[in-house]
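Q: Give me the 3D complex with 1-deoxymannojirimycin.
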Amino acid sequence: MTTPALLPLSGRRLPPLNLGASAFPHHRATLRLSEKFILLLILSAFITLCFGAFFFLPDSSKHKRFDLGLEDVLIPHVDTSKGGKNLAGFLIHGQGHDEHRHTGKEEERLRNKIRADHEKALEEAKEKLKKSRDEIQAEIQTEKNKVVQELKKKDSKPLPPVPLPNLIGINSGEPADPDIREKRNKVKEMMKHAWDNYRQYGWGHNELKPIARKGHSTNIFGNSQLGATIVDALDTLYIMGLHDEFREGQEWIDKNLDFGVNSEVSVFEVNIRFIGGLLAAYYLSGQEVFKIKAVQLAGKLLPAFNTPTGIPWAMVNLKSGVGRNWGWASAGSSILAEFGTLHMEFVHLSYLTGDPVYYNKVMHIRKLLQKMDRPNGLYPNYLNPRTGRWGQHHTSVGGLGDSFYEYLLKAWLMSDKMDTEARKMYDDAIEAIEKHLIRKSNGGLTFIGEWKNGHLERKMGHLTCFAGGMFALGADGSRDDKAGHYLQLGAEIAHTCHESYDRTTLKLGPEAFKFDGGVEAVAVRQNEKYYILRPEVIETYWYMWRFTHDPKYRQWGWEATQAIDKYCRVSGGFSGVKDVYSSSPTYDDVQQSFFLAETLKYLYLLFSNDDLLPLDNWVFNTEAHPLPVLHLANTTLSGNPAYR
Ligand code: DMJ
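A: Here is the predicted complex, encoded as structure tokens.
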């Protein structure tokens, strides 16, 4: 092995360095390296000097020279007459080659111009300094506002027109029976109480603390004031005929709702409450602003889908687009009820914009799920968005799973029953759920338990109670014409959930209840005894009422209305309670936005005629925001000409 350091350096002939014959016409291109190096050093020193001189000139004169069309004074110049030794220079102030030299007169004019500009700039600076700090700040603000206005104009471009679906039954529904009318008016009065207090104490915040009388927010909305209650409440205000309140909400949204905030939000919650709420408000009122805001917001959610599988992250930062999953979710997984509850809103977004991007995202999720093996035909609640593999084998029709099943059924309904693929997935899933999760208690109550790693937990959540309504809604069109069976199943779930209310002191339902060890439809653990103004039981009463007109559902709904008014109403709004079995309950001091979006809406509809938002024409998203049925020409999308 030779050591390079021991080689005789002087004896080595280095290959010639070619610096370009045209640059050195009088030199052979075979100069020694040392000569070339020195030459290069001189050259770069000279260039640096010239640059330095240029940068030390006053700013205004540098710019003005370009304005005057005198760029040529800065053209790099090669002086071939000097044999390459005095190679190049920037011609500054007329020095150098004949062609670029200015006459004495021109130079004089240029100098005067530079001097005048310089003095003018100095004067302007002096003027600025005379202004107060406030004046300067006001000027800066005005400039900023101008920029924001320009951006807004750009963002508010009208979307391509699409034929609007037939909007039937968007108001009235006034019942003839004075008793029912009175009940309906009571619900409307409760809505007004909830809204007015939010308006007074929590305006612009996401939710209201009705006892502390101030704004409230949970981490699902991030750390920004996005007015969740306003957006969630809009369509309820509209159908109740609270038009002044609706207009107030619209004005706030128009002027203040900005999604460019540095806030990490839940993709699912923002979709069902904000996009769902805005779309419903748009369809009901026809006001473009809601559609535009919905589309802007959807654009902010799209980066959440940038995962190796296309299964979105649970959370996304609205500004940076960075996504991640909940820390508590099994093995870094996304949640079935979250990534599986986007379909309705996203199909409508594609329909309204003519942009298939939203539709493609949700169809990709569906296709991926279709390809996967399902243990016992059940969908586990956890799916890892990096690997595309299931997490823990836990299946639920309540929290973490619920609205995924709901959206399969509603995708079919919303497509005017053309999306048969969704209906098949729903039918398959429900069959497996009935086989493995639905049981009768010793006392004869039908309940839906949870599947955890191969065993059935005999516990049902308040959230699971929505399924009664879902079974009834899906009865028509069910496989093997089991409509009667599913309507009956819906009625049984409604009955069980009513029992969970009736067996408490406050006649309000607990968060979760058991069917185990002699316990039937009663909460056992202290941390499952709360009621946070949830809608699911009332939602099921309403669907059952629409399909059967059995007066017991209106009766049960009225019991719940009275209990809420008695135990949850405070002078500053409505609050959840911490223990439904206690005769002196304490409040949780939160007026949830879904109380206005769902609980009060379903109660109002329960005491209205069926011609208000008829189910043949409207499909309610999981936050009770009604979206019209799209009469599509094929199984997916064609409402918008862009899809044809
Ligand atoms: C609502 O935000 C929606 O209904 C969601 O699907 C789950 N539950 C809450 C209210 O309980």
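A quick observation: Residues 1-33, 49-102, 634-644 have pLDDT under 50 and may be disordered.
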